[in-house]
TrEMBL record:
Keywords: Cytochrome c-type biogenesis, Membrane, Transmembrane, Transmembrane helix. It comes from Geobacter sulfurreducens (strain ATCC 51573 / DSM 12127 / PCA). InterPro entries: Cyt_c_assembly (IPR002541), Cyt_c_biogenesis_CcsA/CcmC (IPR045062). Signal peptide: none annotated. This is ResC/HemX-like cytochrome c biogenesis membrane protein. It is found in: Membrane.
Length: 239
C-alpha cells in the first residue's frame, strides 16, 4: 500500500509540467490515507508516519485552488515548488513505521480529529504562503504577495478553528481547556506570529520584502511547532 505514497510523490513532481498529474498525485495520496483509514477503522492521524502523509496530502489539496487560478495558470515554478514540497513529505513519511495500534480512549472523539485535520490544513496553507514569498523574492511579482496573504489568512482561520476544537478536546480528555505543555505553548506562539503578520500585512507596514521574509519565517515556526516539538520535547500530545 505504501507504493501509493511513492506514486503520489512522483506524480506531484511531474505535475509541474502537467497539472492533471498533480491532481493524480493528490488522488494517490488521498487513496493511501483512505485505505489506511479503512484498515484502522479511524482517520489515520496518530503517529509520525500517518501525520506526515496527511500533511503531504493537505499541501496537495490546499494547492489545487491556487494551481488552477488565473493568476498562476501559466506559472511553472509554483506547481514545481508545491509539488516538490508535498513529494518530500510523502517520501519522508516512509521513514517511519505505519502504526496499527488501537485508538486510545483519550483520542476517540470527533473533537480530536477536527483539531488535527484543521491544523494540518492550516500548516499546508502556511507552507504555500511561504512558497509564494520565496517566488516573490525570486521574481518580484507583486501578485504573489497578495496570494501569500490570502493563503495565510485562510490558514489562520483554519488554525483558529483547530485551537477551539483542541480546547474542547482537552476539556473532555483532561478536564481543562489548557495545559502548559511545549506543544500548546508553541501552538500559541504560531497563532500569535500569524496574528501580527496578518495585521502588519493588512496595514501595509514593513515593506514588501520584509513581509515576504517574515511569511517564510512563519513556515519555520510552523515546522518547529509540528515536528520540532514532537521530536525534541516531551508533550502530552506529541504525535
Amino acid at each position: 500500500m505504501k507504493w501509493l505514497l511513492v506514486a503520489s510523490a512522483a506524480l506531484y513532481l511531474f505535475g509541474s509540467f502537467r497539472r492533471p498529474l498533480f491532481a493524480l498525485g493528490l488522488g494517490a495520496g488521498l487513496a493511501y490515507l483512505a485505505l489506511r483509514g479503512i484498515s484502522l477503522g479511524r482517520l489515520p492521524l496518530v503517529g509520525p508516519h500517518d501525520t506526515i502523509a496527511f500533511f503531504s496530502a493537505s499541501i496537495g489539496l490546499m494547492t489545487l485552488p491556487f494551481l488552477f487560478s488565473p493568476s498562476l495558470r501559466n506559472s511553472s515554478a509554483f506547481p514545481w515548488a508545491t509539488g516538490g514540497t508535498a513529494a518530500v513529505f510523502a517520501l519522508f513519511s516512509l521513514a517511519f513505521p505505519a502504526l496499527a495500534m488501537p485508538l486510545p480512549p483519550i483520542l476517540n472523539t470527533l473533537w480530536f480529529e477536527l483539531h488535527v485535520a484543521l491544523a494540518f490544513f492550516a500548516y499546508a496553507l502556511f507552507t504555500i504562503g511561504a512558497i509564494m514569498g520565496v517566488l516573490f523574492l525570486a521574481g518580484g511579482e507583486r501578485r504573489l504577495l497578495d496570494l501569500q496573504y490570502r493563503a495565510a489568512l485562510v490558514g489562520y482561520t483554519f488554525f483558529s478553528g483547530s485551537m477551539v476544537a483542541g480546547g474542547i478536546w482537552g476539556y473532555y480528555a483532561w478536564g481543562t481547556y489548557w495545559l502548559w505543555t511545549p506543544k500548546e505553548l508553541w501552538t500559541s506562539i504560531l497563532w500569535i506570529f500569524y496574528t501580527f503578520w496578518l495585521h502588519l500585512r493588512l496595514r501595509g507596514a514593513g515593506g514588501d520584502r520584509l513581509l515576504a521574509w517574515t511569511g517564510i519565517l512563519g513556515f519555520g515556526v510552523m515546522l518547529f511547532t509540528y515536528l520540532g516539538v514532537s521530536m525534541l520535547m516531551k508533550s502530552s500530545h506529541s504525535f
